[in-house]
Specification:
There is one protein chain. This protein starts with 5 loop residues before the first strand and ends with a strand. A five-stranded mixed sheet has the order 1-7-6-4-5, with helices on both faces. Strands 8-13-12-11 form a four-stranded mixed sheet. It has 327 residues and is an alpha/beta fold. The protein is built from ten helices and 13 strands. The chain is globular and about 55 Å long. Bound molecules: coenzyme A (COA). The site of coenzyme A (COA) has 19 residues, from α2 and α7.
Length: 327
Amino acid sequence: MHQSKAKITAIGSYVPEQIMTNQHLEKLVDTNDEWIISRTGISERRIASKHEYTSDIGYQAVLDLMKRYNKTVDDVDMIITCTFTPDFKTPSSANLIQAKLGIQQAGAIDLNAACAGFTYGLHMANALITSGLHKKVLVVGAETLSKVTDYADRSTCILFGDGGGAMLVEYDEHNPSFIAYHLDSEGEKSHNLYVTSLSSTMNEEQLQATEKIVQNGREVYKWAVSSVPKGIASLLQNANMTLNQMNWFVPHSANLRMIESICERIHFPLAHTLYSLVHYGNTSSATIPLAIDLAVKENKIKRDDHLLLYGFGGGLTQAGIIIKWTI
Ligand code: COA
């Protein structure tokens, strides 16, 4: 990999106020708390309010980043919003976040790589900055999955939640964050996880009736536990590093049983694995920044720690990166 010239300098996150517990789901579908916890590890998830959309959640995550790190984003020259639940098909949620922040003269695009979105976004930010074309890139992972979740389907509605995370990536050739990456796509398996039609001109009720996450959970599970360890091996090879050198493993928080199985297969301790699913569920593009931010707030992650981030999901796609923590 080209020597990176990009450094992560700030992180922020946000989740909506409303909590949907497993007990609440028991009233909607034939399920129970014990089944959900034993199969997924999820206790509760956050749900966006009726008028809260992905750009609102992403915007709040950026405000949190600015406040905590005393950062201005006025001079950001690119905003990448990673999401598969944008407010509209067009304009992009990144356009809306740019407007809410009042940033002038910045590029703004959405990136859809489903649950691998945030690691793709960080990879793109590194590429744009290391190439010398951009200096300061805002990467936002935000989702309102509750708006496309079928609350009559007990095998999917138990999994998903809403939330967002953001990272600021800036030019720094002396102390870069990015060490290696590995990307993969298996579109031939895309029928195992997809969203039906999208149309943001609809109101909430119409939206709920048409846009739905459809998933073959078993197949996705089997794919993830066999493909992700192989991808991690390629990523480590690209970095010329071993898992022993990783302080933290941050897989996409899809399902705790899946994470445990991956950890067993790669021989990495669960105690050094970060996930955000217990209280937030699967928030797709937001799970990785949420998990990192929870650990930052608990003072678990130290400067210069090595983190292996690994996103995977709809596509089916995967994106892993190894970073040095530089905040
Ligand atoms: N509560 C109670 N029972 C449920 C249930 C629920 N919420 N959801 C499914 N079941 C039932 C099924 O109907 C089935 O019953 P049957 O044997 O009478 O037909 C039984 O539990 C087993 O179903 P199955 O789908 O095989 O369960 P599973 O052990 O595979 O768990 C998932 C289902 C969805 C939790 C699991 O497949 C999974 O997490 N897959 C990965 C999904 C994912 O992470 N997707 C996002 C990737 S980014």
